[in-house]
Amino acid sequence: MFLFAFATLLPLPLLALAALQGGVWVLAALLYMTVFTYLLDQLVVIAQPQAADPTAEFPAADALCVVLGIGHLALLALIVWTIGQRPLGLTSTIGLVAAAGLYFGQVSNSNAHELIHKGGRGLHRLGQWVYISMLYGHHTSAHVLIHHRLVATPDDPATARLGEGFWAYAPRAWIGAFRAGMQAETARLDRVGRSTWHHPYVVYLGGGAAMLIAAFALGGARVCRISGAGRLCAGATSAV
Known about the structure:
Layout: H1 2-9, H2 11-21, H3 24-47, H4 61-85, H5 90-116, H6 121-133, H7 139-150, H8 166-192, H9 200-219, H10 221-226, H11 228-239
């Protein structure tokens, strides 16, 4: 369990060092998120030949999720600031954006998914804000209200169609989930008689706008041009 937590958390300092130092640390972060991650999938069979009990809980799972959630928000701010305020050079910047995009899409998205399913309100809110920081806040509603209910049916935007390519799937899933989640939340509010100001999409949209403003404040106009690739990578991976 210690090795699992160590391997899960290691990208955080690697990406932080990549943002602060550039150079070889960018390469190390990129290799970790690609080659080493692939090797871990192969080595886990050797390290643990017998499958773990699927009903067993990971010790300190909530604590690990919280560290990853807070670490995501801090790392996102650091990378945005680095790209905007202390350029690393074209090659290092591209490598940093690629490594960070892979991390946000593969780790942060998965962790946010775990957090929104937690029973505690604080854990749920943390997962929601991780999604919002990636401009994917509506997934908090759409995943639970739409995907859980309609998965593997034509009515689920997050279910790929037979033979559908990724670039056709990704925008359809994002837009479709946004609309379906908003309709479901609106219907829920109507049933309980609550006002529009209680609509979760107010938080999703307002929070997303606040994240963009914060990115501009941290990195300036330059970061809005360059880091779009990282956000797109994270959002597209999250859609899957």
